[in-house]
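REVIEWER CHECKLIST
Item 1: Sequence provided? yes
Item 2: Single chain? yes
Item 3: Sequence as submitted:
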Amino acid sequence: MQQLLKLANEADIDALANVMEDFVEVFATELTPFAVALSEQLRDTYLRIVREVLDKNRNEGGDDDFGDYLDEKSITALGVLQTIGTLILTLESTPDVLLHIEAILMPVIQVTLENKLYDLYNEIFEIIDSCTFAAKSISPTMWQAFELIHATFKAGAELYLEDMLPALDNFVQRCFP
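Item 4: Structure as written out by the authors:
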């Protein structure tokens, strides 16, 4: 898996993201001891890709329209987010590991929502949904995610309400059983 991540970092090949997701799904039990390290590597890969998108947009003097460059990079970023989501779902029986992973993934959630990377919202909201569902409770880290969802909604992302609803439902269900 580390070789796949290294290759993905070097080449940004979206096909590798699909392979990583399948790998996580098939070898979930074997990867559990390495879940935290894997989450850190996936986070770092995602943040590097997003940083490149944001830097390129700033250098071109663009506004919030990330254009074709986001389209090229978003496929790889999307694959990384899907792999993270699959990993979270495989860890449902290990709440202590999930708590640690939530903290690791908070920068991923934060950079995506704060920079209005709309193409990636669905997967981000799925990750929040998976974390809050699998953990069976709401951690302080996920409350930070809730605040980001709220700020995102208030900042004009009401078109993404449908994507937000499963995560929001978990916040209600887990806090008021």
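Item 5: Key structural point noted by reviewer: The chain has one domain: 2-175.
Item 6: Recommendation: ____
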